[in-house]
Amino acid sequence: MEHAEIIASAYTFTKNAFFSINHLPRWIVLFFYIVGPIIVGFIAATIVLQLIVLPILVSLLVGPDFGFTPEVLSGLLGYFAVLIGLACVFFVPLMQGYCYRLFRTGDTMPDTGNLWGLFFNGWRINITLFIYAIPLFVISLIYMLVFMYLFPDTGLYSAADVLELEGMMYVGTVFSYAAVQFVTTLIIILFACVGITHLCRTGSIREAVNLRKVADIIGKIGWYDYILSLVIMSILYLMITFVTMSLGQLFLNNVFIIGVLAVLYIFVLVPITVFFIKYLSIVYDTAFQPEEADTEEFDFF
C-alpha cells in the first residue's frame, strides 16, 4: 500500500472540496451541522433549567440545612446546560449523516440537503458506535461491582492511603481499570473504523458489527498498513487539538478568546473530517482490489 499516494489523493479531494470561494458555503453549512445542534440545545436547556428547574431547586435547597445559594444553583445548571448542548451533537447527528453520505460517494462531495435523510443516516452511525462501545460499558459495570465489593467504605475518587495494604489494592485496581479500558478502546477503534465504513457502503448495521467480516476486511487491507493509516490520521488530529489546547491555556481567563478558539477549532475540523473519511475510504477500497506483485525490496511508506 502506497500511503504517500493515498495521503495525496485524500488531500487533493479535500482541497478541491473546500479551498475555494465557490465552496465556502458548503464549508459553512457543514460547520453549522455541528454547531447548530449545540447552540439550539444549549439555548433550550438554559430556558428550561433557569426558568422552570431553578425556582424549584431554590425552594428546596436554599436554606441553612443545605447551604446552597441561588447563584450557585444557577451556575451549576448553566454547566448542565452546556453538557446538554454538547450532547445534542449526538442526538441530532446531522454531521454524522453527512459523513455517511461521504463514505458512499466516489470522487465528488455529496449534497448537503435533505436534513431528515442526514438525521436518520446519522443515527445509523450512532447505533453502530453504541454497539461497538458496549464492551466499555460492561467493563465499567464490572469494575464498579468490584469497587463496591472490595472497598465498600471508599468512594471511587477518595484519597486512599497508598501505604496501607487496602490503599495499595485500591490504587492497583484503579490502574488496572484504566489499563483495561485503554486497551479495549484501542481494539474497538481498530474494528469500529472499518465497521463504520462497511456500514456506509453496505447500508447494513448487522454487517457493520460482524466482527469476523470486519476482521477479514482488515486482513485483506493488511493489519500493518491499516494501523499505520490510523496512526497517520491520528497524528494530524492530535496536532490540531494540541495547538488549540495550547492557545487555550494561554488565554484561560479570557472567555471571548476561548470561544473564538472553539469556533475556529470546529471550523477547521470540518475539512479534516472529510480528509479522514476520504483517506479511510481509499484504505478500505484496497481490500477489494486485486493484489499486485510488490517489486520493491523495501517499502516502508
Automatic annotation (TrEMBL):
Record Pfam families: DUF4013
Transmembrane segments: 27-56, 76-95, 129-151, 171-200, 221-243, 255-277
InterPro entries listed in its UniProt record: DUF4013 (IPR025098)
Keywords per UniProt: Membrane, Transmembrane, Transmembrane helix
Protein name (database record): DUF4013 domain-containing protein
